[in-house]
Amino acid sequence: MNAEDVIECRVLTGFHCLPFAQYTTPHTNRRCEHEAGMTMIGASIGGRPVGLAVFSCQNDSEKASLESIFVHPDARRRGIGRGLLKAVHSTLVDMGAAEVGGTWFHDAPSAGLVERLLADSGWSDPVSTAMVHHCGRRILAHVDQNNRAARLPAGFAFDSWANLSSDERARVDELRETQEIPFGLHPNGESTLPVSPKTTTVLRHEGDIVGWMIHHELTPEMLRYSSLWLRPDLVGGGLGISVAIESARRHLALADQIPRLFFMVMEDNHAMHRFIARRLQPGLDRSSILMDSSKALIPASSDEK
Q: Is residue 238 a part of any domain in this protein?
């Protein structure tokens, strides 16, 4: 076997990551640069990069996440994908992880390849976990045209994230503890994406911050509608929908600059799925099912018993 046939999979660090960066998204590359627990494993043949797997494994969690895996089309059907997954497995076992999971869109061009690769490597059968809706100016205009301006109860008012003082942002951070806000619903739940200051909408009551609709800047032209939160005693009175509509109107005012958006609804959020079908469907461009699969990580010594 000559050097051109040898497949090498190894953990990448520093400038060694650069030749492999083309095999994942700019967002994942940013996460690898700035987020603790992100690891790249590159595959090469004769020193030529041909594939990449990226996973996240936090020190305080036994479950890791496979963030992306890709093999160059010219190098497929040579076992490179399986080699990358084997390297991910052994690296995670050494790190003390007990399980690895991963997600992908059902309609992604490589979805079929990913599903076959994971199945061949012993991962669980994929299940749907959420619906991701991709939209643009059309849905913003639809929301604006089909909803009256919110008539908030006395004492309530909308505000912009851009208007928050440093002291108020500190109080927002304190709310995560005092209100037991899940990390994913808090503005600081995203460590690598900036909050969109002009479109992110804050709800105030007597001046205090009691809710928000957070938009994160995924790219200069795309927002992720990340989280809607209300103080628990305010849930159920229509305020949440009012905050979401107001945030869409603020985005519409900047649609020439930021024309795209997407948002995710978990599988079991039946009320939101019904609302989208009833009120938002005409404005959607594309909807993708988010699939999920996982695998228990068994140390090699256990396999041999």
A: yes
8 A C-beta contact, residue 171 and residue 209: yes
> Domain range spanning residue 175?
137-258
Span 225-229, mean pLDDT?
94
Pairing of strands 284-296, 127-135: antiparallel
Tally of structural domains, the chain: 2
Q: Check residue 185 and give its pLDDT.
A: 84
Structure tokens that stand for 298 in this block: 């068994």
- In which band, very low, low, confident or very high, does the pLDDT at 183 lie, cut at 50, 70 and 90? confident
DSSP 241-262: HHHHHHHHHHHHTTTTTS-EEE
What is the overall mean pLDDT for the chain?
92
The answer to whether residues 10 and 41 touch, using CB atoms and an 8 Å cutoff, is yes
Q: Dmax of the chain from CA atoms?
A: 78
Whole-angstrom CA distances from 170 to 21, 175, 179, 184, 271 are: 35, 9, 14, 18, 33
**Gap between the Cα atoms of 293 and 55, Å rounded:** 14
Please report how the helices 80-95 and 111-120 are oriented relative to each other, as an axis angle in degrees rounded to 10: 60
Q: Are residues 89 and 197 in the same domain?
A: no
Cα(46)–Cα(5) distance, rounded to whole angstroms?
7
Within 10 A of 193 (CB to CB), how many other CB atoms are there? 19
CATH number of the domain to which 54 belongs: 3.40.630.30
pLDDT band at 3 (very low <50, low <70, confident <90, very high): low
Side chain identity, residue 73? P
| pTM: predicted TM-score of the whole model, two decimal places | 0.82
In a 13 Å sphere around the CA of 216, the CA atoms on its Cβ side amount to: 20
**Phi/psi at 165 (5° precision):** -80, 170
Confidence at 305, pLDDT banded by 50, 70, 90:
very low
Buried b (16+ CB within 10 A) or exposed e, 214-226: bbbbbeeeebbbb
Which residue in 92, 86, 82, 87 sits closest to 114, CA to CA? Answer: 82
